[in-house]
Design a protein that fits this description.
The chain has about 400 residues and is an alpha/beta fold. It contains 16 helices and 13 strands. It has helices spanning about 25-35, 55, 80-90, 105-110, 135-145, 155-165, 190-195, 220-235, 235-240, 255-260, 280-285, 300-305, 320, 335-350, 350-370, 370-390, and strands at about 10-15, 40-45, 65-70, 95-100, 115-120, 150, 170-175, 205-210, 240-245, 270-275, 285-290, 310-315, 330. Helix 1 links the parallel strand 1 and strand 2 (about 40-45). The longest helix is centred in the C-terminal third of the chain and has 18 residues, at about 350-370. It is elongated and about 65 Å long. The two termini are about 35 Å apart.
Length: about 400
Amino acid sequence: MTRARGAGEVPLIVHVVHRFDVGGMENGVVNLINGLPEGFARHCVVALTEVASSFARRIGRGDVRFVELHKPPGQTVRVLPRLWRELRALRPAIVHTRNVATIEAQLAAVAAGVPARIHGEHGWDIGDLDGSNLRMLWLRRLLKPLVHRQVALSAATERYLIERVHVPRSRVSNICNGVDTARFAIAGDREAARRATLPPHWPEQAFVVGLVGRVAAVKNLQLALDAFARLRGQDSSFAQRARLAVVGDGPELPAVRARASALGLGSVVWFAGAREDVARCLQAIDLVCLPSLAEGISNAVLEAMACGVAVVATEVGGNPDLVVAGVTGELVPSADAGAMARAIATYFTDARRLRAHGAAARERAVTEFSLAAMLSGYHRIYAEQLRRIGFAAGTRSDPDALSPGR
């Protein structure tokens, strides 16, 4: 593929995802495209499966193109010829694939002559909770020579890429997700937020535990349901006051509903579904739980922290990068309902601890995990790759002046 790099040419970045719908990784793509300067690069999102139009509307730029390839389950190779044709027509400067489900798209990018290729590892799936799946490990190793820069969102993933996939340390960047701390903030009037958001029949002084995010198998929401039910059986005050809010949607929602019913929680669980007002929901919640079997860097945790909500999370993946045990929340062993129940009980019985950890979580979100820091990290690696392939125009914008979204 030949390119004429004129002085006024704005390079194109193609972001390849499995599906562009509600999810932490997809949310990061939205924030990235919205936050990078328009004169720095153009953008196209290619979904190997489908694009959810409602989610795509969150991108505030009108010049972003979306492509759907409608890949059948487990058959990435079948869409590579079409992806190759799309890339030949688009002529991008950079292709950025995300997670192992899209890494084979690097083959199409090489064949189409894309000169700069980036791959990001955002988190783990139910089929590979800790990177031990040998087929996926060897796939990553086989394709790593095709990738110019790898991005790891957590320290654990960075170690995996270097130690297990054997990517040279010099080709790995650790860029944590960022959170918009202006949009996700402590409520000015918390009681008003609760009245506007929570079910009206709930007690005025309800202690609300939130499960926020995509309802997928790897999120293991049943663990939190089991812990919640255990506490209800042990503490009559908890049974009277505590309520559970499930904010999100996903393929495991029917199973989670069934489990809640089997545990006798039907009257105390609110299934809020996918929401546009997630920040408002978080402002009405007392404590967020993340019972995942595996995680990258959880947007749900970051958003809860930014809203001043303490978090109880399983000690997996990138969760220890975010939650400081005993300071902003608690970390519990994976798949241990008893430990999660004890952590929830600690906050239920100690309102001062709950408030202090929520305040510390907000401070940590603001100082350590700003959206501007994330944008700056991606800006730098994109600019580095653009300079390497001969694009000078558009790479001089100040990364410290990036907009944290629109």
